[in-house]
Specification:
There is one protein chain. By secondary structure, this protein is α+β, with helices and mostly antiparallel strands. The strands form five sheets. Strands 1-5-6 form a three-stranded antiparallel β-sheet. Strands 2-3-4 form a three-stranded antiparallel β-sheet, with no helix packed on it. The two termini are 30 Å apart. It is built from three helices and twelve strands. One of its GO terms (cellular component) is nucleus. Pfam families: LIM. This is LIM domain only 3. InterPro entries: LMO_RBTN_TF (IPR050945), Znf_LIM (IPR001781).
Length: 155
């Protein structure tokens, strides 16, 4: 994976009677009510930002990514270092930061993940079948079974 580090971000409330901690981003003391702890350092909420898009990492989730001395949000980490692939249905490129659907080794754009005979889209929990590298809904899969007369292999 080549040095990819995903690190957790904790939000801590500052105890009023403790000595203020120094911020790893701006080197000033943290006098706010809350601070962030990440990479074994302390940060102002405004100082822990993605090196690319400047989003505040404490707001976009509880994880940050480090690579090549950069601190990044997930989207920029994947955009810069993620592996892109091609959609098994439309063959077009899938950017690394996009959400995808997977079936065995195949990867699909969310919009392309549909029955390849009737174009029915799948919802979470719907059954789908992969036959000869085609995604099929249950109806089309079972109709295919009737025509061909082969025994179903439910996985």
């Amino acid at each position: 994976r080549g040095g990819r580090k995903s690190e957790s971000i904790q939000m801590l409330s500052v105890q009023p009677d403790t000595k203020p901690k120094g911020c790893a981003g701006c080197n000033r003391k943290i006098k706010d009510r809350y601070l962030l702890k990440a990479l074994d350092k302390y940060w102002h909420e405004d100082c822990l930002k993605c090196a690319c898009c400047d989003c505040r990492l404490g707001e976009v989730g509880s994880t940050l990514y480090t690579k090549a001395n950069l601190i990044l949000c997930r989207r920029d980490y994947l955009r810069l270092f993620g592996v892109t692939g091609n959609c098994a249905a439309c063959s077009k490129l899938i950017p690394a930061f996009e959400m995808v659907m997977r079936a065995k080794e195949n990867v699909y754009h969310l919009d392309c993940f549909a029955c390849q005979l009737c174009n029915q889209r799948f919802c979470v929990g719907d059954k789908f079948f992969l036959k000869n590298n085609m995604i099929l809904c249950q109806t089309d899969y079972e109709e295919g079974l009737m025509k061909e007369g082969y025994a179903p292999q439910v996985r």
